[in-house]
């Protein structure tokens, strides 16, 4: 890779649009803003609206550009084309030295493609995650693979992510940094946290087994989501005085309808609006078990010592599975019930999973990414030390 170059401070435009991208980019934006080698600006596509704005508020980020593209039940083509068109003008106006995108959403793919069209270098944060199945997760596996081709700099959370890129022939401009979500988590968790969502202050976290649930992925729409919701309802009915299910429901109408149809009217199920990131992290820290199809929760919960059952057929985050704190429960009612019942009933099975491990980061990811950018632009003598895979 030829050295990247910039005159004066390196102008970095961060592009993001959904809740998880915002949570994971926020600490990096702050890091760039605080360093004199960089001139940092942000463009949000607002692929998510309310769920994005909540994160921008908490982390006090005021984007310079807001494409405001969200519409109800938006299709993948609509998101991608609106982002591409909107970003064209933003890139022409700002002419950054580097565009940063995060992860694997439609915003991520469109952001990288829009920059490529103007021959602007792309840095991919959270690079190298793969399942090897182009349709799972859908469309994220293809989005991140395509961004891998488009990007010049690749910031891999773990050594295994770097190895995935090497298998695709991507070996230049690759840095192992840890995941920025662990940096974010370190700023949000507070002892004796008081929840703004009042119901969460009233839960008996010591006397009950609190199960934190999220479920939203597109590949789970339809039959898998029906099976998952049915398992959750049966779980709640089987343990009426032992278990409390807390489920902040994603604003997607598809998810809202499925969750309310199966779970309304059960006394020990709390369907609540999406939580602010700090509320979510502190709730996770108090929960007994996490059941989720989310990527971010699979990274956060192990750092907090909370067992996770993944409501998907596969995961691109095998590190915590190997460490023993995460298990794939799949998307079939019977198996989900069986695996969750074991963790609720067997203290030995629970203890085996409930230990804090941190294969995803040590809280230094943002500093390493900024150092790596400075190095790639010839502003530092050495690249940052790689994250070892143990936080
Ligand atoms: C998107 C990402 C997914 C990521 C998820 C994080 C794609 C293709 N998918 O999926 O990778 O895991 O975000 O949550 O990029 N909505 C609102 N308000 C909001 C947010 C969403 O009303 O603040 C509703 C809208 O009706 C929207 C729908 O949710 O059309 C779905 O949002 P969308 O971004 O298309 O898909 P997600 O499932 O959120
Ligand atoms: N999250 C949140 N409020 C919620 C649900 C999730 O703040 O009600 C956070 C969660 O802690 C994690 C991120 O959002 O940091 C994950 O986002 P999501 O599950 O939407 O997307 P994914 O990680 O699956 O792409």
Polypeptide structure, described:
Helix content is 43%, strand content 15%. The protein is of the alpha/beta class and 391 residues long. Strand 6 (153-156), helix 6 (159-167) and strand 7 (174-176) form a beta-alpha-beta unit. Helix 1 (19-33) packs parallel to helix 2, helix 1 crosses helix 15 and helix 8 (223-238) packs parallel to helix 13 (333-345). The protein is globular, with a radius of gyration of 21 Å. The mean pLDDT is 97. Uridine-5'-diphosphate binds next to helix 1, helix 10 and helix 11. Residues 18-20, 47-51, 72-74, 76, 79, 105-106, 139-140, 216, 218, 251-253 line the site of uridine-diphosphate-N-acetylglucosamine (UD1).
- How much of the residues is beta strand, in percent? 15-25%
Number of helices: 15
Q: How many strands appear in the DSSP assignment?
A: 13
In N-to-C order, the SSE pattern is: EHEHEHEHEHEHEHEHEHEHEHEHEHHH
């Amino acid at each position: 890779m030829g050295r990247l170059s910039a005159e004066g401070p390196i102008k970095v435009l961060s592009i993001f649009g959904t809740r998880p991208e915002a949570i994971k980019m926020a600490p990096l934006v702050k890091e760039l803003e605080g360093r004199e080698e960089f001139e940092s600006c942000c463009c949000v596509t607002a692929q998510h609206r309310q769920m994005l704005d909540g994160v921008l508020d908490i982390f006090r980020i005021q984007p310079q550009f807001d494409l405001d593209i969200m519409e109800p039940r938006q299709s993948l083509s609509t998101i991608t084309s609106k982002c591409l068109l909107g970003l064209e003008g933003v890139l022409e106006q700002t002419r950054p030295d580097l565009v940063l995108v995060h992860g694997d959403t439609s915003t991520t793919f469109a952001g990288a493609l829009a920059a490529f069209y103007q021959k602007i270098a792309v840095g991919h944060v959270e690079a190298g995650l793969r399942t090897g199945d182009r349709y799972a997760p859908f469309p994220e596996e293809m989005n991140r693979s395509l961004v891998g081709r488009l990007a010049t700099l690749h910031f891999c959370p773990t050594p295994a992510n770097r190895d995935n890129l090497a298998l695709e022939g991507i070996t230049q401009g690759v840095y192992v940094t840890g995941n920025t979500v662990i940096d974010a988590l370190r700023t949000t968790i507070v002892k004796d946290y008081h929840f703004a969502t009042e119901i969460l202050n009233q839960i008996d976290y010591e006397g009950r087994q609190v199960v934190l649930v999220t479920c939203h992925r597109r590949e789970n729409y339809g039959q898998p989501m029906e099976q998952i919701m049915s398992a959750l309802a049966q779980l709640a009915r089987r343990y009426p005085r032992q278990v409390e299910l807390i489920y902040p429901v994603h604003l997607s109408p598809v998810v809202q309808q499925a969750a309310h149809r199966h779970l309304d009217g059960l006394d020990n199920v709390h369907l609540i609006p999406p939580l602010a990131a700090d509320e979510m992290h502190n709730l996770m820290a108090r929960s007994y078990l996490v059941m989720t199809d989310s990527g971010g929760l699979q990274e956060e919960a192990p750092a907090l010592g909370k067992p996770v059952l993944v409501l998907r057929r596969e995961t691109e985050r095998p590190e915590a599975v190997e460490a023993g704190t995460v298990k794939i429960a799949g998307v079939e009612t019977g198996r989900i019930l069986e695996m969750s019942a074991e963790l609720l009933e067997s203290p030995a099975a629970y203890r085996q999973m409930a230990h804090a491990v941190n294969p995803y980061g040590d809280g230094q990811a943002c500093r390493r990414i900024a150092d790596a950018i400075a190095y790639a632009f010839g502003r530092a003598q050495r690249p940052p030390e790689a994250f070892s895979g143990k936080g």
